[in-house]
Amino acid sequence: MMLRIGMAALIAAALAGIVHAASVLAMPQLAGQTAYQRLSAQVPVNAMVPLAEGQPGSTPLPFEDPAMVVAVCRYDVGTGAVRVHFPAAPTLASITFYTQRGVAFAALTEKAAARGTVDIELVAQGRAPRIAADGEGGSAGLRLEAPLPQGLIVVRYLALEPLMRPMLRGFAEQARCTPA
Amino acid sequence: VRNILVLLGVMAIAAFGGLAMTREMVAGAPPFGRVTVDAWTVWPRIGTPDIDPYARAILARTGELPMAPAEGLLFRAETTSDGRMLDGRCRITISGMMPAARAWTLTLYGPDGRTVPNQAERFGFTSQDVLRQGDGRIEIVAAAQVQPGNWLPTSNAPRVVLMLRLYDTPVTITDRAPRELALPRIMQGACP
């Protein structure tokens, strides 16, 4: 009898471990609150949209830096590549690529800009043999592979003081994300 | 029949136990891959494809977008340097030298990740708009009442979280922080 109870407890513990591991791994797919989903109401697919200036409490993404002027693109490279245009501003700026589950897979700062902009072609995994500067057409273009077909591109400009915001908003409005 | 009942019982315990464990592990900050410096915690791999499954699950639940190492480092503090929970009804002092970085920001949030609304519309300080002492040290006071110097309003929020972001910093952290890395100390007093 004791042996049977012990066996049952062991099996229960092992199964609990499996349930735990499976639920942790499944959460990014099942959670309805990812950044990608939170932004889907206000950001159309394959278009760069500056986010509204953070009224406190209204920010769609938690723990964002309120000193940043932000533009977001919800990309879908499932049907073709997306061209991303990131104008460098005279301040600290960055462009970060996330999968729809919120994993950051690439990031660049404005220091990577050639002639004031960074232009990147984002393609689905397997469509680009390597990440390389392709130099075609005379522009310093980069090609990047997205691990999942959908995700977010976030462009951020640091406003070290509030007076810089209108100027940086102009840069955020010039950022682009368009189907190639 | 008894065997089937036992089997069902085992499966119910397993499902409940497994899900309870998951709930516990993803309830707060990511449980693994953290490096602490004073009151501050950093997750060096959270902004990379090497992020662990627990941190992934937590980000999916909160909707937070992590900071990539190319951008800089993010440190989070929920307690004072002596381990007390940060309480916006108290007077919280953040003081010391900031590590080398092209720029930094220090921001105050509620536990849900939203900035705390206040009349002064001040949610944090940056390396440019902070007032420095003669020796380059900074002192920021987070409190509900107006303070001289660098005042960060807390609007009496019972729990607050501080985030320090070092943008474009030469500081690198992999599995442990460099010994010489010093971050501002966080003290708390005058609680109601």
What does this structure look like?
Chain A has 180 residues and is α+β, with helices and mostly antiparallel strands. Chain A has helices spanning 2-30, 35-39, 165-174, and strands at 48-50, 68-76, 82-87, 93-99, 104-109, 117-124, 141-146, 150-158, 176-179. In chain A, the strands form 2 sheets. Chain A has a 5-stranded antiparallel sheet with strand order 1-2-8-4-5. Mean pLDDT of chain A is 85; it is low at 130-139. Chain B is an alpha+beta fold and 192 residues long. Helix content of chain B is 18%, strand content 26%. The longest helix of chain B is centred in the N-terminal third of the chain and has 24 residues, at 2-25. Chains A and B meet through α1, α2, β4, β5 and β8 of A and α1, α2, β5 and β9 of B.
Strands across the major sheet of chain A, in which order?
A: 1-2-8-4-5
Q: What quaternary form is this?
A: heterodimer
Structural shape of chain A: elongated
The radius of gyration computed from the alpha-carbon positions of chain B, rounded to a whole number of angstroms, is 20 Å
Structural class of chain B: alpha+beta
Mean pLDDT level of chain B: 91
Note poorly predicted spans of chain A: 130-139
Main sheet properties of chain B: 4 strands, antiparallel
> What is the string of SSEs of chain B from the N terminus onward?
HEEHEEEEEEEE
Percentage of residues in helical conformation of chain B: 10-25%
Q: How many beta-strand segments of chain B?
A: 10
**Main sheet record of chain A:** 5 strands, antiparallel
- Following the backbone from N to C, one meets helices and strands of chain A in this order, namely HHEEEEEEEEHE
How many DSSP H or I helices of chain B?
2
Q: Stretches of chain B where pLDDT falls below 50 for ≥5 residues? A: none
β-sheet strand percentage of chain A: 25-35%
The largest inter-chain interface, given as chain pair and residues per side, is: A-B, 58 and 58 residues
